[in-house]
Amino acid sequence: MSFELIKELCDTPGVPGVETRISEIVLREINNLCFTSYKDPMGNLIFQVNKTIDNAPTILVDAHMDEVGFLVSHIEENGMLRVIPLGGIDPKLFYGQRLTIWGTKSVEATVAAIPPHISNKNDSSSIPVEDCLIDTGLQNTKLKKIIKIGDIVTFSTKCEINDDRILSKALDDRIGLYVLIETVKKLAKSKLNCNFFVSASVQEEMGLRGARIISSRVSPDFSIALEGTVSNDLPGVASHKRLAQLGSGPEIRISDKYLIADRDFNNFIQSIASKERIKYQLTAKNAGGTNSTALQVTGRGSKATVLSVPVRYLHSPSSVCLVKDVNLTIKLLIATILSIHKFKS
Fold first, then answer.
1. Does residue 288 come out as left (phi exceeding 0), alpha (psi in the -120 to 50 range) or beta?
2. What's the CA gap between 216 and 237, in Å, rounded?
3. Coil, helix or strand at residue 198
4. At what angle do helices 3-11 and 20-30 cross, to 10 degrees?
5. Which domains does the chain have, with CATH numbers?
6. Cβ proximity of 48 and 37 under 8 Å
7. 32: exposed, middle or buried (Cβ count in 10 Å: 0-12, 13-18, 19+)
8. Residue 229: beta bridge partners?
9. Which of 211, 307, 215, 305 is nearest to 262 (CA)?
10. Which residues pair with 155 in a beta bridge?
């Protein structure tokens, strides 16, 4: 496992619509390993890993490049800023956080917080993100030379890794992107019995926008969205609300708010996991959504599912996942691709 690559992916900014720096990393890591590559007008990267095999099944594996973040929307006369959120961010998590503003140079800032000894302790309401003040400590004249309307803003927390766990912002979906990159590296020189495509998509956090145009170009028979998925395995949480749990291997998703995964494809992946003795877990839920929804129903459609690394505290400044879950996800994905020609409905 490359801790350096995971750290680079997590620490590099890339919010919806501004994924360029992330796409540069992806291209650097796998472009020379693939048969062809293409960047579409939206910024999606699509790679055909091996040469076309006639009459073989086509499988597409996708991970999105964007993270939840913000855009500078207004600069006050005193130099303070306002931002708007990109993606689902709980205002309670935003208040008092450190941010990085990516202007002509990066600027550290804080979400202005009222000191507790002068705040209204009877007011438990959350301030909407767009109503919060962002304080850089810079005067207006100096700030405007560095920062402008539309500059991207991310949580400023840096990725921390050891042999057991990863602690970082943006694990949704940089950890899925890492799984994709490592899978390509391991399979690029393998003899495959399928047509293997991967995509690094844009703007997933804003309504699966990028993925909606990928299937029409690839026309896959099978599609897998790689994700960092919600894990709520915390003390005091009822067992039926914990969803995917850290340490129990990748999640094979049955359903979410917008997806009913292909049951035969899921059963096929489960059979591979059992044969290879790869630990996995199933989740059925009616919340959330991934690019699998778009990949399933656009173009001519595909047999679609989601393979995810469990992550605690998703869409927060500091999410947590386990190294062993990442490795098991890579192992299961590789085994699935190598066996997909054996699929029978």
1. left
2. 41
3. strand
4. 160
5. 3-67+169-342 (3.40.630.10), 69-155 (2.40.30.40)
6. yes
7. exposed
8. 310
9. 305
10. 99
DSSP result, 214-250: THHHH--SEEEEEEEEEE---TTS-GGG-BS-TTS--
Rounded to a whole number of angstroms, the distance between the first and last alpha carbons of the chain is 35
| 153, two tokens | 């803003």
> pLDDT tens, 59-113?
999 999 999 999 999 999 999 999 999 999 998 889 889 999 999 999 999 998 7
Type of residue at 341: H
Q: Report which residue type is found at 263.
A: R
Residue type for 291, please? N
Cis previous bond, 264, omega within 30: no
Given a contact cutoff of 8 angstroms between Cβ atoms, the answer to whether 192 and 50 are in contact is yes
Active site residues per annotation: 204
Tokens of 67: 């993270």
**Cα within 13 Å of Cα(133), Cβ side:** 11
Q: Can you tell me whether residue 67 is helix, strand or coil? A: coil
Q: Nearest 5°: phi and psi at 197? A: -120, 150
Identify the three-state secondary structure at position 73. Answer: strand
Q: Where are the beta strands (DSSP E) in the chain?
A: 36-39, 45-48, 58-64, 69-75, 81-86, 98-102, 106-111, 134-135, 152-155, 160-161, 165-168, 195-201, 222-231, 251-255, 281-284, 303-312, 319-322
Dihedral of alpha carbons 225, 226, 228, 232, sign: positive
Distance CA 319, CA 336 (A): 28
Question: For position 127, what pLDDT does the model report?
Answer: 86
Question: In angstroms, rounded to a whole number, what is the distance separating the alpha carbons of residues 62 and 189?
Answer: 20
DSSP-based three-state secondary structure for 213: helix
Distances (CA, A) of 121 to 17, 91, 97: 39, 17, 19
Coil/strand/helix, residue 306: strand
Per-residue model confidence as pLDDT tens digits over 204-220:
999 999 999 999 999 99
